[in-house]
């Protein structure tokens, strides 16, 4: 009998602040010992997968994997927010190592959401005891991470009485993190009833891991192709015990796992800025410090510092919602992943530029971070996949709710403006209202068939929702008298301009770029949608950036 991830299981309430700090202290110690800079750079240089080191991290003295395992199966019972914080901090050290560690978490998730009690005791118990590296085997050569189009088959094997005793699996999986070293994998295959997850143990006859791929980045991780030829899997290894549940289980996993990939992009981006910011405070160019030059601060650092803060605010909100037992947050997971990983990638890119020639050398690490962080824009669904998901589902929600979804955000931001001004809330509201009308215009004219237009809507949707999260965080800090309140308010105000600018560009592309609207229709839309607030979002922007630079660079 399957044990669902229901309220009765109490699996992910989260840690108390003291226990969470202990985990962070452990990560800090790892960065000085097992994961010291010299070792990390050496693994990267030699493209070496440090299996012994990772297994030591799972051992009784460290046991980082315990965070994600429910207490009843031998773990600590950490929540989504705990996993986010751990993943973010580990990503600051090395994304390759974090990818290997994340593979365990990802591989365990089908068991967490769909496993029977017996399966959880056996397999989650093995992870908790530190006896198992795990891999998540879904991606295929021709389907990527599109679970609906997988080709790997699981054919039922029956005994003389016609009872199913197991399955025979044939197919290939591609780009599987830790696939070659994993003690067991959770594999998605097609049964007659539909996609289903199975546990397959290392050494099973017919299961052959391929060689590790040579990669652009995350070289300390192992990425392999896995082939399956008449691999027999006993019925007790069918996750949940009922075939055809894999698609639902995969979707339950995505809202959570994509949040963790977002944390990877966020951590890597922060690590890059943590190198570039101190450098600017010491490097003299043409008679002054780089930290005093707007060409450095306003172009190469501040935009990324702001977007990383916004990404963190949004991820924290979604993690809190997951920990509060809210489900069906796949779109939110996509928003977090898309925004945070693209932001982290661009932050690393500009950190290289900020350091000049030093940024191109391995000693300063930013070139490694840049090589590593790019994968976060690709795995667990590439950025373009996320844009498709975001635009399609938010378009449907907006039409179905008759504009209530973004209308509610606009009203919230308008109300917040009354008590917390000069944080850009009015511009978030204006962007949300304009976005509503743009979505309905696209719907009426069937422009949802134009992927370019839908991608533009996705970018605006992301900026509005992420910006609202940053505004909430800034307002909360202000109410609490937090020392970071001024910095967060300035960041919210500046990011509001980004949101407004993105909304304006998307609307103009719809009206003028599609070529289907005449001047009368364009003027009619402009008259019905007040774009004045959006156009004025740049008011006093430079002084706000100057003040933010004073805070970040401690000028």
Terminal Cα span: 63 Å
C-alpha geometry:
globular
Number of strands: 9
Low-confidence stretches: 1-12
Counting DSSP H or I runs of 4 or more residues, the number of helices is: 18
Rounded to an integer in angstroms, the radius of gyration calculated over CA atoms is: 24 Å
The succession of helices and strands, N to C, reads HHHHHHEEEEEEEHEEHHHHHHHHHHH
Q: What proportion of the residues is helical, as a percent range?
A: 55-70%
On the 0-100 scale, what is the average pLDDT? 94
Biggest beta sheet attributes: 4 strands, antiparallel
Q: Which secondary-structure class do the elements indicate?
A: alpha+beta
Proportion of residues in β-strands = 5-15%
Order of strands in the sheet with most strands = 2-3-7-6
């Amino acid at each position: 009998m399957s044990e669902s991830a229901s309220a009765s299981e109490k699996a992910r309430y989260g840690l108390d602040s003291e226990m969470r700090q202990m985990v962070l202290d452990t990560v800090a110690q790892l960065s000085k010992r097992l994961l010291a800079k010299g070792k990390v750079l050496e693994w990267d240089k030699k493209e070496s997968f440090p299996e012994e080191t990772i297994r030591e991290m799972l051992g009784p003295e460290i046991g980082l994997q315990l965070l994600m395992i429910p207490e009843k199966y031998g773990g600590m019972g950490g929540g989504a927010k705990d996993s986010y914080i751990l993943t973010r901090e580990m990503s600051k050290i090395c994304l390759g190592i974090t990818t290997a560690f994340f593979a365990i978490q990802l591989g365990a998730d089908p068991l967490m959401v769909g496993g029977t009690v017996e399966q959880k005791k056996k397999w989650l118990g093995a992870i908790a005891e530190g006896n198992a590296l795990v891999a998540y085997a879904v991606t295929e050569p021709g389907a990527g991470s599109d679970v609906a189009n997988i080709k790997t088959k699981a054919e039922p094997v029956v005994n003389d009485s016609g009872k199913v005793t197991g399955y025979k699996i044939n197919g290939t999986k591609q780009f599987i993190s830790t696939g070659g070293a994993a003690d067991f994998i959770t594999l998605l295959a097609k049964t007659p009833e539909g996609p289903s997850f199975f546990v397959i143990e290392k050494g099973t006859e017919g299961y052959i891991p391929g060689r590790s791929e040579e990669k652009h980045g995350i070289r300390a991780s192992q990425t392999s192709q896995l082939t399956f030829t008449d691999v027999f899997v006993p019925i007790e290894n069918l996750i949940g015990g009922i075939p055809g549940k894999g698609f639902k289980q995969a979707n339950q996993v995505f809202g959570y796992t994509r949040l963790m990939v977002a944390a990877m992009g966020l951590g890597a981006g922060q690590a890059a800025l943590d190198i570039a910011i101190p450098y600017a405070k010491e490097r003299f160019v043409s008679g002054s410090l780089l930290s005093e030059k707007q060409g450095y601060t306003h172009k190469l650092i501040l935009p990324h510092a702001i977007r990383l803060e916004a990404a963190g605010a949004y991820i924290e909100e979604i993690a809190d919602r997951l920990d509060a037992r809210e489900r069906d947050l796949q779109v939110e997971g996509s928003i977090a992943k898309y925004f945070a990983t693209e932001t982290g990638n661009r932050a690393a890119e500009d950190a290289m530029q900020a350091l000049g020639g030093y940024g191109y050398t391995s000693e300063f690490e930013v070139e490694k971070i840049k090589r590593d962080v790019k994968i976060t824009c690709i795995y667990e669904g590439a950025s373009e996949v996320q844009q498709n998901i975001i635009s399609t589902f938010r378009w449907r929600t907006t039409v179905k709710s008759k504009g209530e979804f973004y209308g509610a955000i606009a009203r919230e931001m308008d109300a917040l403006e009354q008590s917390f001004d000069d944080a850009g809330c009015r511009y978030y509201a204006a962007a949300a209202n304009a976005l509503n009308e743009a979505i309905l215009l696209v719907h009426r004219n069937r422009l949802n068939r134009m992927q370019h237009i839908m991608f533009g809507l996705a970018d605006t949707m992301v900026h509005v929702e992420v910006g609202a999260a940053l505004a909430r965080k800034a307002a909360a800090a202000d109410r609490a008298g937090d020392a970071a309140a001024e910095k967060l308010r300035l960041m919210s105000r500046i990011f509001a301009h980004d949101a407004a600018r993105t909304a304006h560009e998307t609307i103009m592309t719809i009206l003028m770029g599609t070529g289907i609207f005449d001047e009368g229709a364009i003027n009619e839309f402009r008259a019905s949608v007040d774009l004045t607030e959006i156009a004025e979002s740049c008011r006093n922007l430079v002084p706000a950036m100057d003040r933010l630079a004073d805070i970040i660079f401690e000028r």
